[in-house]
Design goal:
The protein is an alpha+beta fold and 271 residues long. It is built from 10 helices and 9 strands.
Length: 271
């Protein structure tokens, strides 16, 4: 049996968590990631018939029954994931009735999955209906994106339009725009449900004064979406207090979208 610590999915999780901490996106125990795993890859390095513990989820995820996830732990610091993955991460399988997480590996100190696991699973369910190749839900606290939510109107059209207008690549990377929620209490099923509804339309959902959710088929895709929003937000925060003499026009954004063959939110531009 292969060493689970050398599995590609494990190395990607450890490297991504370390990078997010390095960037200052995940202070203390902030942020969480869940990865839908290929059961064959898990079986190559783990006895999937051996359940270490059963942990109630306080949420029913019957559509995900039998699916296996690698999930960051509650109260865990991203800076510690690389050096001690078995304590800070866990591999869980959703039980047949969808109400329990069967722990197959990890949370070695008796811990459990992130408190926002229900929100992750709700988004996984929605995204899998839209894209069967979906795998990643990533939540983090990027500094400039949070700062932008303090000074910018929080309607999705204007927020997306501002991000698209900061640099040319933005509409190419997220032509579907960004979803924006009102401020809500985190760690609740209510914010998870609201996020999942937005995931019907968007791959990025902003939680004002808190953070962002990004999804994708790979760790690079989810991370890259968030990274691009954060770069755009940083640019906005650098120029927001000054008169804007030059900007990418709506017509230019439309030209860009056509040049790249993009299907984008045309209703977010005034053409």
């Amino acid at each position: 049996m292969n060493d689970i610590l050398q599995a590609k999915f494990m190395r990607e999780m450890c490297d991504t968590a370390a990078n997010m901490y390095r960037l200052g996106w995940d202070e203390r125990n902030g942020g969480n990631i869940s990865v839908l795993l290929d059961p064959n890859e898990v079986a190559d390095c783990l006895d999937t018939d051996r359940v270490l513990r059963r942990i109630p989820m306080n949420f029913h995820a019957a559509p995900l029954a039998g699916k296996i996830f690698l999930v960051t732990g509650t109260g865990k610091y991203f800076k510690n994931v690389r050096n001690d993955p078995e304590t800070n991460l866990g591999i869980i399988r959703v039980s047949d009735d969808g109400s329990t997480a069967e722990l197959l590996w990890g949370y070695a100190d008796g811990g459990r999955f992130t408190s926002e696991l229900p929100a992750h699973l709700m988004s996984h369910m929605v995204r899998l209906r839209i894209d069967p190749e979906h795998r990643i839900v990533m939540h983090t606290h990027p500094t400039n994106t949070l700062a932008m939510t303090h000074i910018h109107p929080l309607d999705e059209k204007s927020f997306t339009r501002t991000l698209w207008g900061t640099c040319t690549e933005c509409i190419v990377v997220f032509p579907d725009g960004v979803g924006v929620l009102p401020w809500m209490v985190c760690g609740t099923n209510e914010i998870g449900e609201a996020t999942a509804r937005k995931m019907e339309t968007y791959r990025l959902v902003i939680w004002p004064q808190h953070g962002i959710y990004g999804v994708g088929r790979s760790m690079d895709e989810a991370f890259g979406l968030i990274e691009t929003v954060e770069k755009a937000a940083e640019l906005y925060m650098k120029y927001a207090a000054f008169p804007v003499l030059n900007r990418i026009t709506d017509a230019q954004l439309d030209d860009l979208a056509h040049a790249f063959g993009l299907t984008y939110r045309t209703d977010f531009l005034d053409l």
